Description:
- By secondary structure, this protein is an alpha/beta fold.
- Helices cover 55% and strands 13% of the residues.
- The protein is built from eight helices and five strands, in the order βαβααβααβααβα.
- Thymidine-5'-diphosphate binds next to helix 1 and helix 4.
Amino acid sequence: MTENKGFLITLEGGEGGGKTTQIVRLQNRLHKAGKDIVVLREPGGTVISEQIREVVLSAKNVGISFTTEVLLFQAARAQIYREIVLPSLEAGKVVVMDRSRDSSVVYQGMVRGFGVDMIEKLNEISTKNTYPDLTFLLDISVDKGLKRREDSGSVNRIDMEATNFHTKVREAYLKLAKEDQSDRWQVIDASKTIEEVENSMWEIISKKLGI
Ligand code: TYD
């Protein structure tokens, strides 16, 4: 939990779980409820972090070394937390993020084997030891997720990994959510309709925020 006045919500999950669609809907609902909100994505969200995003996700950069990848995700995170996330939380805003620290734990730490402890040490530095107050795992089978991603037509360097990679991502997220000692994780069945997913997320958020 953060010690700030604001509230940090992160959306996590593998490919095609509909995070981006849900964030737009969530933004509308929070706005209607009169909340001061900031919506961001990782990697990205600031001019500098978006430049780092281009380097780390470009399909052209197949030659990027794994350590470079790990550190670039963290570099983008360090910038967005210092420039936007932490000041917004201090100002009492609700910050909604499409991915954050747990993406590095899962993709780099667990699936690619960099180690969870090492990633969490880096996360501690990049986020100034900030944890989300609430994390949604939008869980969907790999087949359905990849199908949705193909239909959307936007495929990045990491999406191009083999199906086996995406299966490991899904399993790692479910394990992380299950074993986490805090009560911040909420696993949502993302194969349901957009409206159903939206409603189940809103039920949880509105309770937490007392809306
Ligand atoms: P993006 O195009 O934003 O897709 P998605 O809709 O899946 O979020 O791609 C972000 C990609 O970067 C995604 O494949 C996950 C990966 N990623 C990591 O591997 N580590 C990280 O720390 C972050 C933030 C993202």
